[in-house]
Write a structure and sequence with these properties.
The chain is mostly helical. The protein contains 3 helices and no strands.
């Protein structure tokens, strides 16, 4: 109440309760904003980009649960959602590039030989593909 410039003697109990409720709501919003900022910083840590796919998926799932909780608690859309989307996009783009590079390397190092197939023959007639 002092923070709001009110003295206890000047307020009826109902006004005191409303004032306290507003202060609690403000405090919850401030705590949630601080938590979002800390999680946003965590998502930007370079080591996070080097996690295995399963580990990264668990981190993003846990972060998404936290966001859902914060949105339910405060009634506001989390600004953290944009950071999650951006970081996940970057992770998966990097992941796909590395997987394509591994596939390219495997295909280039594999020994390829022609497999004769008479014209019009179905592909399942090749013994090696059965």
């Amino acid at each position: 109440l002092e923070r709001a410039g009110l003295r206890e003697a000047d307020c009826s109990p109902l006004i005191q309760i409303k004032g306290l409720a507003a202060m609690v709501e403000q405090a919850v919003t401030e705590v949630w904003d601080d938590a979002q900022n800390k999680v946003r910083l965590f998502l930007q840590v370079p080591k996070l980009q080097r996690l295995r796919l399963e580990e990264y998926t668990r981190v993003i799932s846990a972060t998404d649960l936290l966001v859902a909780f914060g949105e339910e608690l405060t009634g506001h859309t989390a600004t953290l959602r944009g950071s999650i989307w951006s970081q996940a996009r970057d992770f998966y783009a990097s992941f796909h590039r590395s997987q394509l590079q591994m596939l390219r390397t495997a295909l280039e190092s594999d020994s390829w030989r022609p497999c004769p197939l008479p014209p019009g023959a179905p592909i399942n007639s090749i013994q090696e593909l059965r």
